Amino acid sequence: MNMQHCIKRSFAMAVATALLLGHGQASIAATTAGSAVLIRDAVVFDGTGRAPYAASVLVEGGRIAAIGEQLSVPKGARVVNARGQALLPGLFDLHTHWTPNATPSELPQVANLYMAAGVTTVSDFHEPPEAYAPRRAWLASIAAPDVKFAARMSTPLGHGADWGDENTTRWVNSPEAARAGVQAVAAYKPDFIKAFTDGWRYSNAADNSSMDEETLAALVDEAHKHGLKVFTHTVMVKRGKTAARAGVDVIAHSVQDGPVDAELIQLMREHGTAYAPSLAVYLPERVDGSGREGAKPAVLAQREQNFANALGNVKALHDAGIPVVVGTDAGMTGTPHGASTLRELELLVQAGLSPSEALVAGTSASAKALGVADRGTIEVGKRADLLLVRGQPWQHIADIRNTQQVYVAGRQVQGKGAVLPAGNKALALPAMAVAALVDDFERADGRTALDTLRVDEADGGNDRTWQVTEVVARETGGKALVTQAKLSSKDTAFAAAILPLSRGSVAPVDATAYRGVRFELRGSAPALRFEVRALGNRRFAAPLQAADGWQTVEIPFVALQGQPPYRSKAPVPTWRGDDLQQLVFSAGGEPGSKVWFEIDNVRFY
């Protein structure tokens, strides 16, 4: 396929993306694919292991077209004088969570943080498969790193499955279930699989359940048949051995309950398992400075011991030839996006890698581990993900913070002269119009009348509410949705059914043309509630009363009360109506009790 055909095809894909998003902005990669940039007289650290050298680099069509000391300037090319600056491949972060509970949480703002840090390829472990397509379309409409999405799999009550439902994290506990789970998520075209296989809670909390080796091996085998690599949440030495024997591609955490041994090293070497220690998230004093204040002495002492083990294990594995790559767990508490990636490089050096070895870990080694052969080094034909910095980070790793310019697929996205789309300043996608009928539960495919996938929600943790939500026939004809649950032993136990208003609850909808929500309801639960969720974790709720017989309920928007933000000191939100994402029906009651409710014909009026 020639370059001209590639550019034409990219433009067509970009137009399709813009149409999907509902606003007329084509992909930035397509609109800049033909522009040329000559980065002149840089000191090139190419990520291959070669010593840094002086050269100019020509970028055309989003790729590296030429490297040399005396390159001519193509007609119309922009020239960047890089004398005295270092040119590196764009950085990777193979372990992040773009969670709505982080600050900031808005997709464009998170993307901006990574680009500012020189991170051009990011793996997001947090999204439900329903969100892949709309988030990919959104990312294509702005300047952003290349984000790879992980399909999440765990055991029942395992780590990662202690919140959400199986539409977020697939639960498997047998080889047969593992294969079926991979086949189910593969339909959404994830970039890889994240298996939460180790339930150890760092001696600071009750352990979750762990995945047995037979199940994990079947998961890995099925994933590889679909061309998907497997990363694991593995934090114990013995579970690391299980992961390596099962053939996982990357251990995406530090093993830290003790020193690695010769057996683990040999297993990882035999099976080609790479190691992303995610040191940043384990710092006793976290990247954002939190972690020590208010911590119990015993807990802090345990964290410090675990971190010391983690540092020692990075060095031992690296010295044994195990590929060390960069991941951070950014988005988790105290581990901010972008800044944590740079801190991770410094921590690798603290662990005993040289600065140049840390840079290789964050570039070419990470590219190989993720299976993206088109980037990670500065070589002709590679994707032009580039980072221009002041200093010599291969000698002084802290120089990696002196970012001057960043390029993603040949487009400058950071530094003097960068011009970003307006979407990079937006907090959300433009709101879409929404039809009056949200769901009458008549579709046979488990989707709402808005073509969104219904999901469950319950209190999380090892002791969690168990619920079943399904469509059932009504006595008078037609169908309804029933939720039945046995509440956990917590005072805050609840079970909820969620009706997303857009696919994956990514884009907001505008309901200002309506006055409220009407639905039919019956049930038995002491505490029933109707809730509308909006952008920015903003929630609005009204109590419900239900009986055994059906009743029609109308909830005017003016009757909804703003709820205190989750884990935030932000003020109670005020209603807008043009930023809605979900309708939620929930039931609570006495700990350990059983509750149920049915709903039908949910619509705006």
Radius of gyration: 25 Å
Class based on secondary structure composition and strand pairing: alpha/beta
Q: What does the average pLDDT come to?
A: 93
Reported for the largest beta sheet, the result is: 8 strands, mixed
Q: Tell me the β content.
A: 25-35%
Q: Oligomerization state of this entry?
A: single chain
Low-confidence stretches: 1-31
Q: Give a count of the beta strands, DSSP E runs of length 2 or more.
A: 30
The helix content is 10-25%
Kindly report how far apart the N and C termini lie: 53 Å
Q: What is the overall number of helices?
A: 12
Which properties best describe this structure?
605 residues, alpha/beta, 8-stranded mixed β-sheet, 8-stranded parallel β-sheet, disordered N terminus
Structure description:
By secondary structure, the protein is α/β, with parallel strands linked by helices. It is built from 12 helices and 30 strands. Helix 1 (3-21) packs across helix 4 (132-140), helix 7 (237-246) runs parallel beside helix 8 and helix 9 (297-319) packs across helix 10. 23% of the residues lie in helices and 28% in strands. A hairpin with a 2-residue loop joins strand 15 (403-408) and strand 16 (411-414). The protein is globular, with a radius of gyration of 25 Å. The strands form 5 sheets. Strands 1, 2, 3, 4, 5, 14, 15 and 16 form an 8-stranded mixed beta sheet that branches. The model is unreliable at 1-31 (pLDDT under 50).
